[in-house]
Structures are given as C-alpha cells and as structure tokens.
Give the backbone structure.
Amino acid sequence: MYLEILLATALAVAGVVLAPIYDALERKIKARLHSRVGPPILQTWYDVLKLLAKELVIPEGGYFTAAIVLTELFLSIALLVSVSFLLFFQSLTMYVLVAVFISALSAATLVKSVTQNNLFSVIGGFREYSVVLSAEPFLILLVLLIGAKGVSDLKSLIGLAPVVLTAYVMTARIPFDIAEAEPEIASGIMIELSGPLLAANELSLLTRRYVMAALPAYLFLPWFVANPLLRIGLGLALTLLTWVIFAVVAVLLGRTRAAVMLKGTTAAALALTLLFIIVESVPYG
Amino acid sequence: MGEQSKYLPECPEMGEVVRKLTEEYGGHVIFSRESEVYVEVPRHELRDVAKYLYSSGAFLKTCAAVDERPLNRSFALYHIFGMDSKGYDVIVKVSAPEDDAWVPSIVDVVPAADWCELEARDMVGIELKGRRLVRRLVLPEDWPEDIHPLRKEVPHDFRPPSVKAESEFRPPERGIPIGPYHPVLHEPEYFELLVEGETVVDVYYRGFHVHRGIEKLGESPRFTYQKIPFLAERICGICGFVHSTCAIMAMEKAAGLRPPERAEFIRTIVLELERIHSHLLWVGVAAHVLGYDAGFMHTWRVREPVMILSELITGSRKTYGLNLVGGVRRDIDKNKMEKIMKTLDRVEKEFKELANLLVSVPQIRRRAQGTGVLTRSEARALSVVGPVARASGLYRDVRKDYPYLAYEEASFKVPLYTEGDNLARVLVRVEEVFESISIIRQLLDKLPGGPIMHEKCSAIIPVDELIPPGKYAVAAIEAPRGEDVHFLMTGEGRPYRWRVRAPTYQNIPALRPMLRGDPLADAPLTIASIDPCFSCTDRALVIDVRTGRARTIKLWDGGVGTCRL
C-alpha cells in the first residue's frame, strides 16, 4: 500500500511538471497545423518562470483575488493528486473526493472572476458559469457512477464518450474558451492578473487540463488492467494521447457563442450520460 | 451661362442638375470639368439643395471646410455629392463671412454629413445651425475652444497649452469599453457598448485618438506637390498606394495632364494587388476574431507571395513609393510579368481551397450569418462605401461608377449581396479577391508599350509649376475598404486645401445600427467586418520625409490633434 501511495504521489508530481511541457507540445502541434515552426518544448515553463520573476501587482479586486488565485492553484493540484490516487485505490470515497475537488475548483474560478473589479472579468465569469453548467454536473455524475458501481465490462467503455466530451469542455479550449475569449472580452476572467498571479493562474489552468486529459484513462484503466506498473505506463501514455487529440480538435474549431454552446453541449452530454446509464443498467446476458 | 453650355451637350443630366441649382436655388457655377461641377449656392438654400440632390440619387462623399479668408474674407464648406449612377460629382459650395461664420446643418436631410460637419466645426471653426447634437469629433477635450487647426493663421507646428477638459457627451449608463486598447482593435479607438445581459443595446464611439494633422502638413511649406504623394502614401499602412494614387489623380486633374497609358495600367495593377493583400489580411483577421486561428495563419500564408510580388514590382512590400505626378517610377518587364502570372495562379488556387474551407467551418458560418445586419436603407442614408455597401445591396463601386485609370480596359463583376450581414461582407471580399486576380491578368495581357512618365513631368520643369493655383479637383478611388476621396484646392506650389476622406470614415457611423441588438460575442466581428482602418480615418502617421523615418507619438506626449513633427 505504501508503494502505491508513493507511486500515486510521484504520478501527481509528474503531472504538475508535465502539464506545461504538454502545453508547449500543444503549441507546437498547433503551429505545425498553422504551417509555423512553433516554440521549443520548454517554452511554457520559460513563460511561467518569467512571470514568476515579475513584481507582484495586486489586482483591483484586492488581496481577495490574489488569495483566490492561489486557492485555485492548490485545488487544482489537490484534484490532480486525488485523480492520481484513483489509479490505485478504487473506494467510493476516492471518487467522491475527486468530484468534490472538481466542483470546488470550478467554484474558485467563478469566485475569482467576480472578485475582480472589471466588467470584462464579470462577463467572463458569467460565461464561465455557463460552461461549467453545461458540462460539470455530468462529469461529476459519471465519476460518482463509476466509483459506485465500477466498470468491468467492455460495453461500459461507452462511458468514455461523455467523459471525454465533458472533460474537453472543462479544459476551456476553443470553442469553449469563451470565458477568456481574448479577441472579444480581452482575456475576460484573467484580465486583471499579471506577473506571479498570472503564472499561478496559468499553472492551475494547465494542471486542470492535465487532469482532464488524464481523467478518461484514470477512470477506466484500473478496472481493466491489473498490473500497477502497466497502469502507470498506460495512464501516462493515454494522458498524452488525449492531450494531443484535444490539441488537434482545438485547432480545427472556431470559438462559439455562449447561448449556442450551452444548449448544444448540455444536450450532447445529457444524451451520452443517459446512454451510459442505460447500458450499465442492462443486466448481463 | 456660357460656362455651363460647354458641357450641356455632353451630359444632359448634369445640365439639368446645374440648371435647377442655378435657376431655382440661386446658385452659380464657379468651376467645372468633364465629370465635376462646382456650384456655389446661398447658404439659406443649402438644405433644400441637399434634399433635392439626395432625393435624386446622389450620395454624399464628404464635405470639406476651407478657410478662404485670405482670398475673400469668408469661410467655405464644400459638400461633395456623387451622382454614382451618372458618373459625375456635384460640389456644392456655401460661404460664410468671417464675422458671421455659420452654415446650416444638413445632417437631418443627409445623415452621412454627420461627421464631416463636426470636423468642419472642429478644424475650421464653422458653426452649424439647426443641428441638434453638436460635440467635438476630432479635437481632444483638452484643446482650447478658440483654436481651429485648419485656419490659415495657425502654424502647422502649433502646439497649444492643455486646457481643462470640458465635460463630454456621454451616455448615462456604464457600458462595456472596447478600446482604446483592445485585442481586436489594432489601433487606438474607443467603442463603448451598452449591454443588457449579452445583448448590445447601444454604442458610443470616440475616435481620432491619433489625429496628426496630415492635411495641415500638406499645406505647410515643407511639402510640395511632388512630395505629397509620399506623405499621402503614409496615411495608411495597408492601402497607402490608394491614397498616393488618389492624391496624384487630383493633382493631375488640376494640372490638366494625363499620365501615359502604360503608367495608368501599372497603377491599376498595383492597386488591385493591394486589394488582394488587403482582403486576404482581413479574412485572416476575421477568422482570428472568431477564434479560428488556423484560418488566420493560413490566409496569411497564402497572402505572403502577394507581398513578395509587391516587392518585386515596386521595391517594397508596403509603402511602395511608386507614384509621381505624371507617371510611375518603375516599369514592369517581361520577366516580372511571368512571375506575376505564376504567383497569381498559385494564390488563386490556394485561396479558393482556403475560402471554401473557411466558410464551411460551422462556428464561422453560424456566427457570421444574420449578425451585424445593415439594411439597404440604412446603408443608403449613411452613404456607406465599399464592401459594406455592396453587402447591403447597394451597387456602389468607383471602378464602375466613375471609371478611372485602366479599369475600363478590364471586364469584371462587382459582387453584390442583399443580406447585409457579416457573412455577406465576408463573401463580397472573398469574391473580390478573385475578381482582382482576373483584372490583373487582363491588364497584363493588354499592357501597352510606351513611356511610364509624362513628357512634361521631367526634372527640368518642376511639377509644382504645372499645377496652377486656384483650381479645384475631386478624385476618388475604390480602395479595398471602399471609396477613397481626395479633394484638392490648389495654391502656390502646394495645396491651398487638401482634404482626405478615407472609406472607414464613411463606414464607422454604420456600426451603430449594425451592433444594436446583437450578442456581445459578435460585436468584435461586426466591428472588424467593416474592415476599419483607423489610421486612414485619423490620418495618423507622421513621417519625417527627410529621413524617411516613421515615428509614433505617444498619446500622452502632447495630446491629440497636434501636428508637430
């Protein structure tokens, strides 16, 4: 058990380190699809380190915004740790913990946006709210369902579809980056952040993206693969694969409008989740 | 009547308009040319004259205020009406004595006069009678009340002390500020959007943050006719050649000389190249605004060969310095022609694929369709120009309405859509790229031989001596963004008054009806959809001609509206 705790922790630490590298990889992939060269693979880390070296500017929301940004970072790392533990411990408590952290992280993002005394941030906050509403309830439901019942049958893999869809929405990539939407509302929820706070915000966003890329694999792998080392290897590989797929999808799409997005994704997530529930409730044979 | 009878047989409709203006409204012809007639009317008749002209199909191109006190102790306002369907301009002049400097406002009759009237008030100090809303348009809030930069006694390098800001007209609610610095605006302008939820209910605009007084510079002793095209080219970083050609056309008209045919062909080819790269630039930016960066990058990849081609033909990717009064400075030889043809083939093929892909991306289609709608009647009332007009069902294209340079030698279509939404504006521009490619091919095929410079415009006779004082000229060119108008009143060796009206100047007021009722998310696309060029509108950049070095002047050093180098 100690070994597993150690492995899970190592996996979480690896996630924090890898997230900015994967982000740079995403930028590289994007650049190649744009017919550009793109940045070096450590670029996002360079960016974060540079931001950390800048002076601390407390945004107009005061210290509360700063505190919330840091809370968000802690919550995203906590979420990553709890998700890493899923690979080795499948008690319902673990799944509840993951659900709670997902929810708390979204709440922190919302609070962050309204504490900033800036119209763009408030608009971004409302948009974030609609993004969260359209995906998060389903994601949490799916996590809890899998935790409560477990998945052992190949047909249960149908559950991957809603998990991947909602996870993609939660990564705030195009077309779901409307809360940031740089050309429209000038980075919305992030508008007041700079220097170390922006670095913290960036790290928490990337960690969240890492969790969302890892989640499909980490939710399903333990039920199908017995060897813990193989789980880790597959988990890491699938996380990378999911991240790459997400990156490519983001390049192919444009940004959507809040109202359109809310309806479309809610409907799709609802339909896919229901399908999973139905498939799961059909008895064997 | 003698002067009028000269052109009566050539253009009967023009004769009818002149007859009406002179006989019914008490006007008299002060100057005329083939496609322009200048009629001075008493100021109390101006509103009726404007009503008559507007109802008989004229568009208001702009108005130009002139300080004519050194000539006749009065101020003058020239309203330039374009009879697009007939192909001639009627320039209506009203004078106001210097001690009673007012003219009647025509904005309720001709809404398109809104901005140029306010500019006349700011820059020359002509008061507007009968106007409900009078506010500053061009001059900043801290500019002194009684100094009007375009008055002749104000030196071109005058820098006033800052005065306490007057309270400015502002809507009562607090809106969403877009600008002066915003990711979607690549130049400083300010839009304030009043929203309910995510729906825009009204728009407030403030521009001219970087007004540098280029018109005033053109009248200053440091500029001559031969230098002004280079100054005009620096009005805009994208459609600079349009401004330089338009200024030159006005001067050539005033000088009464026509450049050799070959020079006209070369100018036309470069103008169309400029349209291609400008439209490609815009399509890319529109994709970026919609969050489709792949579209942005690939459009600019397709555009790059056009820039390289421009460098091959003119020596520069932008700001070509190709134009001189009387002709052009570089010829197109056989080798260049082959390269142009090859590049055009490639650009056409690649852009065709890309354009098909772009309009099929669901987010782009869904967001562009039905948003930013400008109805035909609104477009007509505001005299909007270019792709904005053509997407709203107004058939306006200077190349067809007032054929100039070599456009009559090429056959081309003018894309026309009636929807008036963002998608229509995208499609107009996409189709225009292909039309421009076709125009260049046709002109290269027909490129005539001969010199590229008028024989009179040699180094021996300075051009400044060819342009006599006291002449008027209006020149218009279909720029990528629409009709660009230059009004010239000649003086001794340099313009007495040079007025530039860029297309964006005419199109920005249309943003209000376009933005109202639309989702906030689409506002940046709608603003981008008129392809706003604020530097043109503001006539912004200052170039030190002696060193050729551009230098930007920060907003906080010296306020807006000064014209010091």
Q: What stands out?
A: Chain A has a mean pLDDT of 85.
